[in-house]
Structure formats: C-alpha cells, structure tokens
C-alpha cells in the first residue's frame, strides 16, 4: 500500500497533467494522401513558381475549402520538399506564401510554417 505522501504526490502530478493538457489545442492535420501532396512537393522543387506550373497543386489545395487545412497542407509540402533538397535552406514562410499567392488562396492569419 502506498504511503499517504506518495498518494498526495501522484494526485498532484495527475492534476497538473490534466490542467496543462487541457490548455493545449490540437493542430489540424493535412487530409491529403501522399500522391496528392507529392504533386505540390514536385512543384516546389522548381526554381521559380509560376501560375502555369503550380496549377495542379493549386486545384488540389483549393479542393480543401478550409483556410487552416490549406496552410497546413501547403506547409507540409514545403517541408517535404526542403527535406528532399539537402543542404539548401529556404525561408519556409516565404515559399508557402509564394505558393498560396499564386494559387490565390488565403494564408491562415498568424500561421507559421516551421521545419
């Protein structure tokens, strides 16, 4: 049987966990499959993004009809592309904004694409 001191410590530990976990918010997850996301990854591998070479990626992202999901999926594509181009560092938010700007899709306010 656990001592009264140990029981108190466990109760406090569980209480703090519940409080801190209650303040966290779930991050949206990109619902696109790898092949759809791969189209955007391939587009991002191009040196310059133009309206004509991002059209397929734009149509996939536009189909999400949800600003947070568009930002999350575009960011995921940028991340995958950066990881494929070892040794090349690109400002993720700049690349994300460039892609969404060409697609004429809004960026979620306050969204930050981090590696």
UniProtKB/TrEMBL annotation:
Residues 1-26 form the signal peptide. The keyword Methyltransferase does not apply. Residues 30-113 form the Bifunctional inhibitor/plant lipid transfer protein/seed storage helical domain. Keywords: Signal. It comes from the Eukaryota. InterPro entries: Bifun_inhib/LTP/seed_sf (IPR036312), Bifunc_inhib/LTP/seed_store (IPR016140), Hydrophob_seed_dom (IPR027923), Plant_LTP/defense-related (IPR051636). Belongs to the plant LTP family. PEARLI1 subfamily. This is Bifunctional inhibitor/lipid-transfer protein/seed storage 2S albumin superfamily protein.
